[in-house]
C-alpha cells in the first residue's frame, strides 16, 4: 500500500490585511478571508493570478481554492524573504534601492495591457457611491471629475505598496491582487501615493517624484486622481483615516481635469 501524504496544517500567522490573513501552510501560504466573507473574493483573486501568469509577471501560483473551516481561502506559493517594507525598515541604507525596485516593478505592470479585468473607473464610481461622509453634491462633483479623466487598459494592482512586495530586491514577488483592474497608470500610482501618505508621508513624496521621473508622467496628471482615490478609500471603512480622507476628497478649484 502507498503511504498517504499528511495534509499541511495551518501554521503561524504571517500577516494581516483589512480583508484577509496570511498563514504558513506547509511550503505554501494560505490566504484566509474574513469569517463570513463569500467565496467570490478567493475565486476572483485566483482567476486574476491565472491571467497574470500569461504576462510573465512575478506573482505567486495558485494551488487550491477551498473552504477552511468557516473561511474561504486560497493556497499560493510562498515568496522567499521578507516584505520590502520590513527590509527597508531594518536596513535603512537600502531605502533608495528599495524605492527604485518598487517603482521599476510598478512601471512594468503599467506597460502591460490587460482588458479582461474590471474597469478601474467603474470600481472607483461604485465605491464613491457608497463612501460614508460625503454629501450628494460632493458625490456628483466627484462623478463628474471621474468622467472627465482619461481611460486606459493598463494593468493596475490597486494596492501596490511595500508590504505587498516580498523577496530580494532583484526578485520581488507581487502579492494581494484582489483589487486589480484595467485602467490608467496615473490612477494606480495615485493610489500608491495615497497609501504611503498615510503611513510614511516623506516616502510618499519621494515615491511620487521617482515614479514621475521614471514614467515621464507629470505630477499634476497623477494628483488629479487624488480626490477620487481618497473618496473611494472611505468606502473601505478605515476609521482612523476617515477625517484625512474626507479632506483629501475635496475638489480644489486649481486642479483641472486632464
Shape: globular
User: Pairing-aware structural class of the strands and helices?
Assistant: alpha+beta
Low-confidence stretches: 253-258
Order of helices and strands: EEEHEEHHHHEEEEHHHHH
Could you give the topology of this structure?
Elements: E1 10-16, E2 20-25, E3 28-33, H1 40-53, E4 62-68, E5 71-77, H2 84-90, H3 95-110, H4 120-130, H5 136-148, E6 154-156, E7 165-166, E8 173-174, E9 181-183, H6 185-199, H7 201-215, H8 219-223, H9 226-234, H10 242-248
Antiparallel strand pairs: 1-2, 2-3, 3-5, 4-5, 6-9, 7-8
Helix pairs in contact: 3-7, 4-5, 4-9, 6-7, 9-10
Describe this entry's structure for a reader:
It is built from ten helices and nine strands. It has 258 residues and is α+β, with helices and mostly antiparallel strands. The chain has two domains: 10-77, Phosphorylase Kinase, domain 1 (2-Layer Sandwich), CATH 3.30.200; 84-248, Alpha-Beta Complex (Aminoglycoside 3'-phosphotransferase, Chain: A, domain 2), CATH 3.90.1200. The strands form three sheets. The protein has a five-stranded antiparallel beta sheet, covered by helices on one side. A two-stranded antiparallel sheet has the order 6-9. Strands 7-8 form a two-stranded antiparallel ribbon. A hairpin with a 2-residue loop joins strand 2 (20-25) and strand 3. Helix 4 packs across helix 9. The longest helix has 16 residues, at 95-110. The protein starts with 9 loop residues before the first strand and ends in a 10-residue tail after the last helix.
Compact summary:
The chain is of the alpha+beta class and 258 residues long. The protein is built from ten helices and nine strands.
